[in-house]
Design goal:
- The protein has 2 domains: 110 residues, Cysteine proteinases (Cathepsin B, Chain A, Alpha-Beta Complex), CATH 3.90.70.10; 96 residues, no CATH class.
- It has 7 helices and 7 strands, in the order αβαααβααβββαββ.
- A 3-stranded antiparallel sheet has the order 4-3-6.
- The longest helix is centred in the first third of the chain and has 18 residues.
- The chain is globular and about 60 Å long.
- It starts with 10 loop residues before the first helix and ends in a 45-residue tail after the last strand.
Length: 227
């Protein structure tokens, strides 16, 4: 355990601490969905550090301390988290979420995020989405759904998000404080893409609802939008 607070790893420090054998979060008993989510959310960014410290109205302080002291701080300090620490969290999720399979079965990352953010910590939804003519919907992460695109062989995240929003006719109601995106995947048998290039920055200008945008012809503020 690492009870002191450690900042997220950046640049050379991230490479030095996280690269090599016996680094990252140790997998055990179908924990890969949770390991990958926790690593993505906390190793190199502070966007969700409020989950570790802030006393939310519904916050379970025991789960919060396990997440902070047994997983995030050791990951940032030494670059390694034992499977036992993640299992400790999984046992608490099983107890709080009334689902007995959190300790042994593979889950969808969205199910894990909804449980820990909404039911256990009581965090407000991070995303507000709206489809054409439909009611606004709140969520904690966005999962990319799209048909196979023959021209996208090795896409980047920017392309996938744009294609997914366009095909689903979705817009972001407001700029999110944190934009968690789940990549397209189809289990062990079939992968839509063998590789996806991470976009280090994400341009959401064209994904925002009612946002003023530039006309691609004359450069003035656009009055019409063609999908």
């Amino acid at each position: 355990q690492a009870p002191d607070s450690f900042p997220p790893l950046r640049n050379e420090a991230a490479v030095r601490v996280l690269r090599g054998r016996m680094k990252g979060i140790q997998g055990h008993c179908n924990s890969c969905y949770m390991d990958a989510a926790l690593f993505s959310l906390f190793s190199c960014t502070s966007a969700l550090d409020s989950m570790l410290f802030k006393p939310f109205p519904l916050c379970d302080r025991n789960v919060q301390s396990i997440l902070r002291d047994e997983i995030v701080n050791p990951l940032r300090k030494t670059g390694f988290v034992r499977a036992r620490s993640v299992m400790h969290l999984r046992e608490q999720l099983t107890e709080k979420g009334q689902c007995s399979s959190f300790t042994n079965a593979e889950k969808d990352p969205e199910e894990f995020l909804n449980l820990i953010m909404h039911q256990i910590l009581g965090i407000e939804p991070l995303l507000k989405l709206q489809s054409e003519g439909q009611k606004e919907q709140d969520c904690y992460c966005y999962q990319i759904f799209m048909d196979k695109q023959e021209d996208l062989v090795v896409p980047d995240v920017q392309q996938l998000v744009e294609h997914s929003f366009l095909s689903s006719d979705l817009k972001l109601v407001e700029i999110p404080s944190c934009f968690i995106i789940q990549m397209p995947r189809f289990g062990k048998e079939y992968k839509m893409f063998s590789k996806i290039i991470p976009s280090l920055e994400l341009d959401i200008t064209d994904l925002l609802l009612d946002s003023p945008r530039e006309c691609c012809v004359c450069g003035d503020v656009a009055t019409l939008e063609c999908s």
